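Researcher: Please predict.
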Amino acid sequence: MSQFINGQRCAAVAGPTDVVRDPSNGAAVAEVTLAEAADVDAAVRAARAAFPAWSGTTPAERSGVLHTFAGLLADRAEEIAQLESRIAGKPIRLAREFDVPGTIDNTAFFAGAARNLEGKATGEYSGDHTSSIRREAIGVVGSISPWNYPLQMAAWKILPAIAAGNTIVLKPAEITPLTSLLFAEIAGEAGVPAGVVNVLTGTGADCGSVLLRHPEVDMVSFTGSTRVGRTVLEAAATTAKRVHLELGGKAPFVVFDDADLEAAIHGAVAGSLINSGQDCTAATRAIVHRSRYAEFVAGVADLFAAVRLGPTDDPATDLGPVISMAHRDKIAGMVDRSRSYARVVTGGTVPGGDLAAGSYYAPTLIADADPTSEVVRDEIFGPVLTAMPFDSDSEAITLANDTPYGLAASAWTRDVYRALRATREIRSGCVWINDHVPIISEMPHGGMKESGFGKDMSTYSFDDYTVVKHVMYDITGVAAKPWHRTIFANPEAR
């Protein structure tokens, strides 16, 4: 049963079937039916029907359900990790130590955050009235999540929405829907009422586009490529929906001449290879001071060579496959084209032998590419890091910002003033100093420029999933208000 509508698993009404496959070996994991317009309508109707009661619960009641939810997720952590590893090609160590614990923590965080929906203090601002602010749920949220972090992205969409009192219809990527469905099912077991969380397995064309344009959907939230994000904006405009977008990235990794080079090399390898490089915040552009450039390139190449590719169920495996053979071929094509204008220092190959059945690609370092070249400008979304030198601090900042994206960045320096300048002048939603990639539930995640707008995680996400309402009370009891003179020449005579 590949849909979760109104509190229960069900098959699509009439859609075709598809097979979810393990990217590490091509084996079938499950057969799913794909949702189409009728299924979207059923899910949205369920969410709409559930909204009045759920939005009317107290913050404490929603908090209690989410606390129970976090506990049930913890009880089933290994089951969830195994499933996430199989459908997304993640090494089991990554699923066990990052994806699943992060999702449990995020659920626990929003259990507390549900009781912290703040507004401006009640007070008298006109002199004749008391004003107060209500922060209310928007309604039905239509969300689309990507394939690179199926579990965590489902959580990032669902949790702030329902903690704020909304109901939601989520469409995960059709190639990785299984943990999103399991997440919704466990939410129901925790006491989330039927219809509050609905999950549809379907394609963008037949399911996602219908969800985005549905007249009963009040808000849309999308995580994915910038190209598709533009389509989401166009679709939402047809009914003037609120929109939240977390889009592509091309994160700079700036290494100044005073950096701890060993730390920077380790950070670059970890930051570029996290989730096989299929991460919008992954380090993709190493911008290194010329005096440290050769040593940095050599150190990264050596450490890349030590990374172990292997079966995803082996805890010793460091790097798994990318999501599909088609995606691997796209990565390989970009790397191969770069050989005409840059230096492929290491990698750039498709592993054979026992890994040939999976969509693996070797960790790849490309040096000396021009800042205007394809591999530097465009998202590769794979285990590929480019490196280029700089001579001055100002040049480093310019290169860091020389991209249409602005999701994440890092700077590596021992100088507090350099660090402060980097955090101030690099145009990204997140700037790390002497680290790259760590995220925590209490802090917001989101970008600027063509990386989108709005925040996931943290209480800042409630700004996207709530509407602020101004309520004003007359405190004078006077029938003829002073401002009535703009309508009546002599208000006292009437």
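Model: Residues 3-246+458-471 form a domain with the Aldehyde Dehydrogenase; Chain A, domain 1 fold (CATH 3.40.605.10).
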